[in-house]
Specification:
single chain, 671 residues, alpha/beta, Rossmann fold, 5-stranded mixed sheet, 4-stranded antiparallel sheet, 15 helices, 25 strands, binds 2-acetamido-2-deoxy-beta-D-glucopyranose
C-alpha cells in the first residue's frame, strides 16, 4: 500500500480520477460534482490532488472522514480524452474512485406515492394505531413530555438560525452539492437553513421521535394524541433535499456529520430513483457502511415507492435496514353512488362543505378539454357544478384536483376561491375522490367541482363500515427480489406507511401547492418515507434498551420477531394483487415493537463478513475499498480472508435462493 501523501499515491489517485472523468459525457465547460473516494485520510490528499490538476484549483465541497473517506469537488471534465491521458502518470493499485454525482438523485421516496390511496392516519404506534380523545395538555404533562438533556457524548449542534431545545438537539443543512449544480438556493422559495419549508422532514422526524401531542389531527381526521415511536428520543435534523432534488455529495456529508455528532440511528427516507446502483456507486450504501459497520449507527432507509413491480426496492445493501410500507386498520372511505345504482368505494380526506343532496352530473375530463385534467386546459363552462372524471397519470393528483377547482371556481363567481371551513387532504386541495383506498391502484379519479358528500368511518360512532383488515402491503411499496443481490431478501420489514398522521411545517401547505393557503400542524400522507421512521424510532428504543447490540443485531431482532399474519389471522395481503403477499413483498414481515426486545436469537455480523459478502458478489479490491475503505488490503483470495460460498451464506436473518433446476439443492449455515 502506498504511504499517505506519497508521490505514487497522488499520481494513482489522479489516474483514477481522470479515467472516470473521461467517461463523463457532460458538457465540457460545465463543472460537475465528483465524489472521490480515497484510501488515505482525505484532507491530506485532496488539496495536493486538486492542485495537481491544470487550471484553477477546484473548490472542495466536502471532506468525508467517517461515513466515507474522500471528498467531493466541482470539476470540469477534460476537453478531450488525449489531453486527459496526457495528464495521467503511472498506474498503480491505490484504491480510489471518482464518481460523478447523479444529476438529480430525486427526493427519493416520495411522500405522495403515485399509486397510493389517500390518507388515513396512523399514529406512529406501529401495529396498535389508536388515538385517544383529544385534550389540552397540562403544564405537568408538558414537563413530563420534555426529554432530558442530551448525554455528554452528544457532539452535535444547531445552526445559529435554528435554536436547539431539549427535543431538537441538532440542526444542520447541506447545500454545497446542490448549489454546485443549481446555483444558490432560491431563498424566495425555500430557506437556506435547517428550517423545513416543505414538510417531509418534519413529518418523518416526528414519526420517529415526536413527543406526545394531545389534540393532534388533520381537520376532523385522526383526532387524538399522536406520539412518535421513540417519544423521549432526541432529534438531530440534517437537511439534504432542496427544491430540485437531493444530491449525493450532500447526503454523504450529512451522514458523515451525523456519525461525527454521535447519533444512534440515521433515518433516511431517501433513495435512488430507478434500479439501485451497484453498492460501490451508491452513496447511501457507502455512507451507511461507514455509519453502521464502522461506527455502530443503525441506518434505516425507505425501500422506495416504485411498486408493485419486481426488483424495484432501493437501499438494498445488507448493512441497511430497508423498510416497505403497510396499511393500518384505519381508512377514510368515501363512496360514490352512480345513477345506475352502482357504488364505487373510495377514500377521501375532505372536511369542508358537503355536496348538495341529490345527483350531481358527471363529465369526463376528455370531453372538457383535458383528459388528464391539466390546469388551465379544462373548459370552465363544461365543468362548473359537475363531478369531473380525470384519467390517472402524467400530472400529480393534487394538480388534477386544483385544475378542476380552478376551472370550476372561474365559472362560479369566485365562490370556491380559497378553502372554506375545513379542508381536504393533501391529495385533494378541493374535494377529490380516489378510487380504492389503502394504497391500492385505481385508474381514474373523480374530481367534483363541488364537494362530495363524505362519510368518515374514522369518526367515533361511525359503524357503517368495519375496520379493514390490517396490515396489508401498499401497492406502491417497492419490492424485491433484491436487484443487486437476490440472496439478500429486501425489503427487510414493513411498517405503517399509508395515511400517516404526523407533524407538518408551518411553512407550506399540506398539499405543498402554492394555491393552497392552508397551514396545518399535522398532515396525513403516505409513502415508504413514512414507514422508515417508524422503524428508525423502534431501533432507537432498542438501542436504549439493549445498548450492547450492534446495528446488525438490532436489525436481526426486528426481522426475526416480525409477524406475517394480519389481524384476521390471514397472511398479510398484498394490495397490488389482493392475495397473500410473499417475502419479496413484505420481507420478514411487519415489525413488532414488543417482541423485538427479546428475540431469543440474533444473527450478528462483523465488518469482515460484509467484505466476504462483497467478494462473493465478485466485487474487486478497488470497489470494495470504496465501500469498506480497506484500500488494497482487501484481497478476496488471500489465505486469511473470510470466505463465503455464496452471497446467501452471509449470516443474515433471511435468505433467498435461485434454483436452476428441480434437482438443485442449496445449503446455508447460520450462526
Ligand atoms: C491475494 O492472495 C492470493 C493468495 O494468497 C495471492 O496469490 C495474490 O497474489 C494476492 N493478490 C494481491 C493483489 O495481493
Amino acid at each position: 500500500m502506498s504511504k499517505p501523501g506519497s508521490a505514487t499515491t497522488i499520481s494513482s489517485l489522479l489516474l483514477f480520477l481522470l479515467l472516470l472523468l473521461l467517461h463523463a459525457t457532460a458538457n465540457t465547460e460545465t463543472p460537475s460534482t465528483y465524489i472521490v473516494h480515497v484510501s488515505q485520510p482525505a484532507a491530506r490528499v485532496s488539496s495536493s490532488l486538486l492542485r495537481s490538476l491544470p487550471g484553477p484549483t477546484p473548490r472542495v465541497l466536502y471532506h468525508y472522514t467517517l461515513a466515507a473517506r474522500g471528498f467531493s469537488a466541482a470539476l470540469t471534465p477534460p476537453r478531450s480524452p488525449s489531453s486527459a491521458a496526457a495528464r495521467t502518470s503511472s498506474p498503480s493499485a491505490a484504491t480510489a474512485s471518482a464518481t460523478p454525482t447523479p444529476p438529480t438523485p430525486p427526493p427519493s421516496s416520495s411522500r405522495t406515492p403515485p399509486a397510493s390511496g389517500p390518507t388515513p392516519t396512523s399514529p406512529p404506534t406501529s401495529s396498535s394505531a389508536s388515538s385517544t380523545p383529544a385534550s389540552t395538555p397540562s403544564p405537568r404533562q408538558l414537563r413530563r413530555l420534555r426529554p432530558p438533556p442530551p448525554p455528554p457524548s452528544w457532539r452535535g449542534s444547531c445552526h445559529p438560525s435554528f435554536p436547539c431545545n431539549r427535543k431538537i438537539v441538532g440542526a444542520k443543512f447541506f447545500a454545497a452539492g446542490y448549489e454546485a449544480a443549481h446555483g444558490p438556493v432560491d431563498e424566495s422559495k425555500e430557506s437556506r437553513s435547517p428550517l423545513d419549508t416543505e414538510g417531509h422532514g418534519t413529518h418523518t422526524a416526528s414519526t420517529a421521535a415526536g413527543s406526545e401531542a394531545p389534540g393532534a389531527g388533520f381537520y376532523s381526521y385522526a383526532r387524538g394524541t399522536a406520539r412518535g415511536m421513540a417519544a423521549r428520543a432526541r432529534i438531530a435534523a440534517y437537511k439534504i433535499c432542496w427544491a430540485s432534488g437531493c444530491y449525493d455529495s450532500d447526503i454523504l456529508a450529512a451522514m458523515d456529520a451525523a456519525v461525527a455528532d454521535g447519533v444512534d440511528v440515521i433515518s433516511l427516507s431517501v433513495g435512488a430513483s430507478g434500479r439501485p446502483p451497484p453498492f460501490h456507486r451508491d452513496s447511501i450504501a457507502i455512507g451507511a457502511f461507514g455509519a453502521a459497520v464502522r461506527h455502530g449507527v443503525v441506518v434505516s432507509c425507505s425501500a422506495g415507492n416504485s411498486g408493485p413491480g419486481a426488483g424495484t426496492a432501493v437501499n438494498v445493501a445488507p448493512w441497511i435496514l430497508t423498510v416497505g410500507a403497510s396499511t393500518v386498520d384505519r381508512e377514510f372511505p368515501a363512496d360514490v353512488a352512480l345513477g345506475d345504482g352502482s357504488v364505487l368505494p373510495g377514500v377521501l380526506l375532505y372536511a369542508g362543505e358537503p355536496l348538495p343532496t341529490g345527483s350531481v352530473p358527471l363529465v369526463s375530463g376528455s370531453d372538457c378539454g383535458s383528459r388528464l385534467c391539466i390546469p388551465g386546459n379544462l373548459d370552465s363552462a363544461k365543468v362548473a357544478g359537475k363531478i369531473v372524471l380525470c384519467d390517472r397519470g402524467s400530472n400529480a393528483r393534487v394538480e388534477k384536483g386544483s385544475a378542476v377547482k380552478l376551472a370550476g371556481a372561474r365559472d362560479d363567481h369566485g365562490e370556491h376561491r380559497g378553502e372554506r371551513g375545513g379542508a381536504p387532504g393533501r391529495l385533494a386541495p378541493h374535494p377529490g375522490y380516489h378510487g380504492r383506498g389503502e394504497g391500492g391502484e385505481q385508474d381514474q379519479e373523480l374530481h367534483p367541482v363541488r364537494p362530495l358528500a363524505v362519510r368518515e368511518s374514522d369518526l367515533p360512532g361511525d359503524r357503517h363500515r368495519p375496520r379493514p383488515a390490517a396490515p396489508k402491503v401498499a401497492s406502491f411499496s417497492s419490492r424485491g427480489p433484491n436487484y443487486r443481490a437476490p440472496e439478500i431478501i429486501k425489503p427487510d420489514v414493513i411498517a405503517p406507511g399509508v395515511n400517516i398522521l404526523a407533524a407538518w411545517t408551518g411553512e407550506s401547505a399540506p398539499t405543498d401547492l402554492e394555491i393552497d393557503p392552508r397551514r396545518v400542524e399535522f398532515n396525513i400522507i403516505s409513502g415508504t418515507s413514512m414507514s422508515c421512521p417508524h422503524v428508525s424510532g423502534l431501533a432507537a428504543l432498542l438501542r436504549k434498551a439493549r445498548p450492547g447490540w450492534s446495528p446488525a443485531a438490532i436489525k436481526s431482532a426486528l426481522m426475526t420477531t416480525a409477524y406475517n399474519s394480519d389481524n384476521s389471522g390471514r397472511t398479510i395481503v398484498d394490495l397490488a394483487t389482493g392475495v397473500e403477499s410473499t417475502p419479496f413483498v413484505r420481507g420478514s414481515g411487519h415489525v413488532d415493537p414488543n417482541r423485538a426486545l427479546d428475540p431469543g436469537l440474533v444473527y450478528d455480523l462483523q465488518p469482515d463478513d460484509y467484505i466476504a459478502f462483497l467478494c462473493s458478489l465478485g466485487y474487486g479490491p478497488q470497489q470494495i475499498g470504496v465501500i469498506a475503505r480497506d484500500g488494497v488490503s482487501v484481497n478476496c483470495s488471500s489465505d486469511t480472508a473470510k470466505r463465503l460460498s455464496s452471497p446467501g451464506a452471509l449470516n443474515y436473518p433471511s435468505f433467498g435462493v435461485t434454483f436452476s433446476s428441480d434437482a438443485d439443492a442449496v445449503t446455508y449455515g447460520r450462526v
